[in-house]
């Protein structure tokens, strides 16, 4: 081996892109760049000496002096293995660090002028000796363990260094001790670079101490664990020892934060009001977490699950305000009308006061849009002193939205029910399930089926969310569901709820809502003071009648907002106040959009006003009948459903059967085609409630007697001429009142439903009851003026040919 004593001089240079080499060991280098290959060839032709310098930026392909560090390592080429032209593997012995004075050549390879690197120290010799001794002890332990592993495994990896225990103990120079320790440490490139260029010996020692100390400590603890386990026979004792050693290792590795987090969660579990069953599940998860590394995905899943359990307000409830009078006052102040719902809430309060442990009711508020179903839930919560939670179910298609996702899925969370309890912070909130009639089903499940357990008083005490997987008590929750119609709600779900129907508002109710709620709200939103805008009651009533036609008050609020905007313009232009009267409405809102349907009409032959129920409230419906020469056929148009078509057929059959008694020529019926039409043909119409009105229209067109335009009729018929009961009486009568009708005919068996009609509507209308069709005919066809239009010419009857049926009805 050649001994090198003179360091200064000029040497070929190999720049290293990613690697950093320090003196004191032998190792291979892969050479591929053309300049580096030429430097190796030049060195081998001379004295095999070369300088290794790391690059500052590995991305630079052809580095210059400013791209290289000012400290490198002088190395001796021990062996060169040529793999292919232009690619070598060189085994080198790295000798000592040198200072790069300057690059004296860059072509055809780099040549550097170097000088010995002078080490310094900022501490005294005694302290430096003390730290050196400490580093030597740590390195002896690491080297000893490495030699032991090599001796136990014949197929083990190549040793990271060539030192023995004795060689380490013989190293006196602290810089050489640092260089000898580097191959045994897992250091980043930046750390290696710092060790290479650092000239302060004390700083070099201090930089490797943490890594050496950690490795030495782990080795010592492993040895202690192994020694103690060898003497233990009890499995329980062995687990305890392992746990203690694990804790010691975590303390040494600085991983105590995980234990602190688990201890904090354990304390929260003990302090919570969860049941013993839930507490046992939570503690089981903590036990699993204590066996995992905090970086493990399973650890984070378990922690999130425990945190969700802790956020559920187990056994936490708010105290109900059981003052019936105060609750009545709150409901009356926040909502006008809706007496049936208010009465039901007050009944619940009274029962709750007498029987505190009774389950919360499950109400279904059914009514047209804009009547206050959703806002009523907030008022109920306010009157009871409970927390308020609302979730919208419109368009929900996934069952997991209700029951939650199973924890096996990434990003799993509890369902909306449990999330609502967490948001409320109590187990007895008022829970509004909005638009429950708009739940949908697809391949991911049926949310309506998941709601069966939620809304069943006998089952929801032990509701199980897929994520939580422990029973959650929903029996104290007051569920209030809202819907516009019942057709889309499954029968089992409908059976679990107490239905309360909300019909449209009357004019007086709308007037009260507008004055007490809508107008003050819009004044505030438009920055107008109460003394800056005065809206007369006559003007407000005209807005209700002429500019809106709805069961609720949403469009009314929009029109009031338009009035406020117009007033805001005048105030902004300098007016101190604005007084809006009825004649001013056309200036602010434009011409009236709606007029009384009845006021537009005159008594006509074959035209009658019927009454209909829709999901958005009641409405009037005109029925038109015309005859023309034909063979007794019937033509039905206007998007009639099958049931309504059957009602029309039954009405024609009754008129034909009673033609003589009604003063109608039977031959006229046999030789005329009848066309029955319901206007607004784009809207589908169905149901049996137009039967009596259809019979009156047919009797009118064949008898040429006009029908009064101020009469509206509803009721199903049979072939014997009876007027049978129908539904939606309140909504239909309110619609008739809104349209300006004076007389309303209802089936006799619907007399009981009149009590639900608001008193002011009953007082304005002449409500009569019909047992048979004749009761309605005697009024609808009486006192009407003679028609002015000519009667259609009907040809004389002809003898029917064999097999013909001139009086047949369409199928």
Structure description:
With 811 residues, the protein is α/β, with parallel strands linked by helices. The strands form six sheets. Strands 18-19-17-16-20-23-24 form a seven-stranded mixed β-sheet. A five-stranded mixed barrel has the order 1-3-4-5-6. The chain has a five-stranded parallel β-sheet with strand order 8-9-12-7-13, sandwiched between helices. Strand 10 and strand 11 (471-472) form a beta hairpin. The longest helix is centred in the first third of the chain and has 30 residues, at 201-230. The termini are far apart. Residues 1-5, 154-161, 784-788 and 797-811 have low confidence and may be disordered.
Distance between the termini: 117 Å
The helix/strand class is: alpha/beta
Please count the beta strands (DSSP E, at least 2 residues each).
24
Name the beta content range: 15-25%
User: Using only CA atoms, what is the Rg?
Assistant: 47 Å
Give the % helix. 40-55%
**Could you name the ranges where pLDDT drops below 50 across 5 or more consecutive residues?**
1-5, 154-161, 784-788, 797-811
Shape: elongated
Rounded mean pLDDT score: 82
User: Can you count the helices?
Assistant: 28
Which sheet architecture does the biggest sheet show?
Answer: 7 strands, mixed
Strands of the widest sheet, in order across it, are: 18-19-17-16-20-23-24
Record keyword descriptors for this entry.
7-stranded mixed beta sheet, 24 strands, elongated, disordered N terminus
Provide a concise account of the structure shown.
This protein has 811 residues and is an alpha/beta fold. 42% of the residues lie in helices and 18% in strands.
